[in-house]
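Ticket #4471: structure output looks truncated?

Reporter: J.K.
Steps to reproduce: submitted the chain below (178 residues) through the standard prediction queue, then opened the result file.
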Amino acid sequence: MALATWWASDPLMDLAPLTDFHVRLATDDAQLATINHISGAEVAQRRRAGHLPYIGYMDETAATYGWVATRQAAIGELNLVFALAADSRYLWDFATLPEWQGRGLYPRLLQGIVQAERAERFWIIHAPENLPSGAGMQKAGFQAVGQLSFQHDGTLGLIPFANPERARIGADLLGVAL
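Returned output as attached by the reporter:
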């Protein structure tokens, strides 16, 4: 899985405006559970854990969503749990509803969240086979900093890409070897 980041000192990429698109913090838990395909109890549990749900709307129709971890995050596929500093956010569980895919909503949702949260650092991962996710992150202005993979001894590590300093900070955040 690739780890990517966006920092407050980074520019947001210039995306062509979609006049009918806007991003809001989700307030309707029933709607959120429905579009996210999770139970209302799961929505409530995520909120109690400090996770914030955002929805991207076309007009007033929910089209895309994602969650923001503010205190602690987990990457279930890697059996990894990590704490977040007060000025950092971890972005997770994003999807665009099928009828809205291919319209460039995901990078706009990411940018809307970055602008709403106003944290110093944002972190996100994507599976290498999920090319649309990686492309959307890059279009929004996120930089891939490293590849998470298992080392010979079975522990998780981060193989840095072009920005070794950000990769080191990401590895420290996740509590993995660089």
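Triage note (M.O.): checked the attachment and the full token line is present. The chain has five helices and ten strands.
Status: closed, working as intended.
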